[in-house]
Amino acid sequence: MLAKTSTACFETQQVTEYSDFIILVHSESRTPNVPYGEHFSTVNQICMTWDSPSNTKIQCFTEVKFKKSIMWSGKVEAGSLEGSGGFYKELIRQLAELADSPEGAALVEKASKLNTKAVTATEVKLQRQLY
Fold first, then answer.
1. Whose C-alpha in 63, 92, 99, 113 is 20 to 30 A from the C-alpha of 73?
2. What keyword terms does UniProt attach to this protein (predicted)?
3. What is the pLDDT of residues 6-52, one digit of tens each?
């Protein structure tokens, strides 16, 4: 059985929308050293919206874009989706951990004193990290 290995991944990320109610992050990843890697890229979008004073709704989308038709497109898509799914699970885990931490609570308290709408710890931390 072949073991999973690691390889270089080149990713560009862009915050395409940012407001009091939404943060939309678009990213595109290329892995040229995998088989057929020069023929496809993985496009991800993460949409975070304010759901209530204590909740942030997070939607994650993934698409594999092919620059050229290849025989193994099904396997490439399956591998890309598996990798993106793992990333999303870890992202959600870390955001939930932050929201439950004393640091997250302090960020929410600080933001609430700014006389703006109530925000969650997750939103405050993301705003700080994205800019």
1. 92
2. Membrane
3. 788 899 999 999 888 888 999 999 989 888 889 999 999 999 898 77
Q: Side chain identity at 12, as an amino acid letter? A: T
The amino acid present at 61, given as its one-letter code, is F
Question: What are the angstrom distances between the C-alpha of 117 and each of 53, 57, 124?
Answer: 8, 16, 12
Q: Is 11 in contact with 27 (CB distance < 8 Å)?
A: yes
The residue to which tokens 């023929």 are assigned: 39
Extract the tokens encoding 28.
Answer: 């595109």
Cα(108)–Cα(83) distance, integer angstroms: 32
Which pair of structure tokens corresponds to residue 131?
């800019």
Residue 122 pLDDT: 46
Between 105 and 87, the higher pLDDT residue: 87
- Tell me the C-alpha distance between 96 and 104, whole Å: 10
117, part of any domain: yes
Report yes or no on 51 lying in a domain.
yes
- If one counts the domains in the chain, the total is 1
